[in-house]
Structures are given as structure tokens and as C-alpha cells.
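Exercise 3.2. Students should predict the tertiary structure of the chain below and write it as C-alpha cells, then compare their answer with the key that follows.

Predict this chain's 3D structure.
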Amino acid sequence: MSPSLPRPSTAGIGAGFVGGLVNAAVVIGLYVRGDYPLLESTSGTAVLALTAFCIGFVPLVVSRDTGLISPAAGFLAVLSGTIWLEVTSPDPRWGQLNEYVIVDGPTHVSSYANTWYVWLALTALVAAVEFGLRRRYAVGVDRLRNLPKGPLSRVDRLEIVLGAATLLAVAATVLVVRAGIRPPAAAGIVFAFTFASTAIPLWALFEDGAIAPLALFVALVAYFLVYEVFVSTDSPVHILLFGPYAVVFAVVWLLERSLRRRFDAVRRGHA
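Answer key:
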């Protein structure tokens, strides 16, 4: 039977509302501080508040209803980082050229709020990673809630991996499309590269408990995806490297599997 989450509990929805309201309040407050012109539009402000609410709502619901720590912790880390970037950077200076608004200076909180799809995809990914690690290495599994207790079938594991990889690939593709990737057909390459570079280390974790490919994924793919959100908004060059990274992850997985088998053989020989 495929693993699935039940409907959110009342406590989960309550935690989500707190997270969503806090995030929306922080985002709107930072927009006011930076005198962002978007606040002059009622509809624009409403959309901003809604997306900011979702960024805080989803990870808190997931953490409260599953016992997974990483979704809530990841949300708080990204929100804290956004606040730090915004308050320590020079205030943006706004102007207008014909009907276009122009800005001089960083707009970190705008980058954060407008890429809600990236944060929601990363929420699903970190939840899958934590679930895989805790199941594989029996870390606090008794504190997990509303998640499969017995062994997962290969189909179940495959669904988790494909689902998380697809969400992140879609998010990365939307990110580069909105940044104006040229040619537009390159968006398909971004999707394929992101999917492969996510699926390989995640599958290595669920199949063999491999850690090295996952560590490299965090250091390269996850890092550069966040880098694209906050720093490099005009060129997806880092994301186009995800394809070669996927090959590296596969090789590292095979090396770790080989080393683990040799270590197990030596250990059995001394037993």
C-alpha cells in the first residue's frame, strides 16, 4: 500500500496557522520597512500575504502531524536567514521608468516570498530525507506519527523518491522560467537535471542507507538552488550543473556501497 498522509489534525492546522500568520506578518513587515511598491496594490498585497502564509503553514502542519523535525526547522532557518539578509543589506531604492518600476539594491524578502514553490518543494524533500534516515538508522522512530510503521515496499520507496524529485524539479524549472532562461527549451534540461540529481541520492538513501551522495546533494544542489533564489536571479548556470552532479552522486553511491560491503565482510570475518 502506498504511503500517504491522513488529513491534517486540528493541532496540526493550529500549528500551521501560527506558522503561516507569523511568516506573513514578517514578510509584510519587511516589505513595509523596505517601502516596496507592491503594497500600494490591494490585490498584490493579498497575493503576497497568501503565498507567505503557505510558506509557513505547510511545514508546521507536516512537522506537527508526523513528528518530523526538519520541515519546521528548515522553515525557521530560511525565515531567519531572510530576515538577516534583509536587515543587514542596504535598503532598496525605488524609481519608475515609464510604466515600469525599477529598483537599485537587493530585495531579499521579495525573492523569498515570490519563490514559495521552491520552499514547499524543499519541505517535501527534507521530510522524505528525514523519514528515510530515521527509518534506516532507527533514530526516534517511535516518535513518528501518521507514517508507515512496517517495512516499505520497493514501490512505496519509489513513489516517495519520484514524488520528492518531481516537486523539486518543477520548482527549479519554474524558477529559471521566471528568470527568463534562454532558450526556453532549456527549461526541459533544467527539469531533467534537477530530477536526476535529486532522485539518485534519495534512492541511494532508501535502498542502501547511503549518506555520502546525500551530503553532496545538500552541499551542491540544495545550496545552489537557494543561491539562485537570493543571489543569482539572472542566470541559471549553477542549476545547469545539476546534470554532471547527478553523475557524481551515482559514482559516489557505488563507491560507498562497495566500501560498506567490504567493511561488512571484514566485520563478519572477525566475528
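Discussion points: The chain has a mean pLDDT of 91. The longest strand covers residues 93-97.
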